[in-house]
Amino acid sequence: MRSHYYGGGGKLRRSRTRAFHVEKAEFRCCRCKSIVGVNIEMGTAHRNHCPLCLWSRHVDTKPGNRASNCHGGMAPVGLAFARKGADKFGRPRTGDVMLVHVCQSCRAVNLNRIAGDDCPEAIMAVFTRSLGLAASDRERLASQGAVLLPAGDEEELRVSLYGKFV
Questions:
Q1: Which of 18, 58, 88, 93 has its CA 20 to 30 A from that of 28?
Q2: Could you state, in order of their start, the residue ranges of all structural domains in the chain?
Q3: Half-sphere exposure in the Cβ direction for 93 (13 Å, CA)
C-alpha cells in the first residue's frame, strides 16, 4: 500500500476503518516554523494549522483526508461560526468557531475548527483584521461557504474563547 506524506512530516497510510490515519503526527509550521504536534484531547485529530500563528497548509480537500496536491500556505483571513440547525425558538444555533483560511497558491478557501490549544489572542487578531476586509472580499468568501463574523459577534466570540464572566 502506498504511503502519503505532507508538510514537514506526517506519514499517512490508508486504513480499513478510516480513509487515513496518522502515524507521525507533528509538522513544522509553514509560516512561523514552530513544531506542531497533534493532541487528540485538545480536539486536534486532523490538525493542519499552527496554534501560534494560525497559518495552515493546504493538505485537505475534505477535513482530514490529506488528498490535496497543492500544499501551499494558507493564511487565516477571518472567523466563522459553524451553524448547526435552530434552537427550540427557531433561532440559528451557534456552533464551533472556525478559522477561515485562503490558500496563497491556489486561492482555495477552507474552514478549520479551532482547537483548545490555539492562541486566543491570535484568534482575536484574525477577527480584528477580518473586520477591515473589503466588502467584495467578504462576498467572495461567502460565495465559497465562508460567512465571516461581523463586528456584532465580537462578544459571542469572546465568550466562546474565554468563557462567560459574571
A1: 18
A2: 49-161
A3: 9
CB count in 10 Å sphere of residue 8: 15
125 membership: H or E segment, kind and range: helix 120-130
pLDDT of residue 12: 45
- DSSP-assigned letter for residue 139: H
Using alpha carbons, select from 147, 71, 74 the residue that is nearest to residue 107. Answer: 74
57-62: list long-range contacts, CB under 8 Å, 24+ apart.
Answer: 57/6, 57/7, 57/27, 57/30, 58/103, 58/105, 58/106, 58/108, 58/110, 59/6, 59/7, 60/110
Q: Comparing 5-9, 30-34, 70-74, 78-82, which segment has the lowest mean pLDDT?
A: 5-9
Locus of grid cell 459577534: 153
pLDDT tens digits along 109-120: 999 888 888 999
d(CA 65, CA 46): 9
CA distances (Å), origin 36, targets 47, 70, 80, 87, 160: 9, 20, 23, 37, 23
What would the pLDDT profile of 139-154 be if each residue is shown by its tens digit?
999 999 899 999 999 9
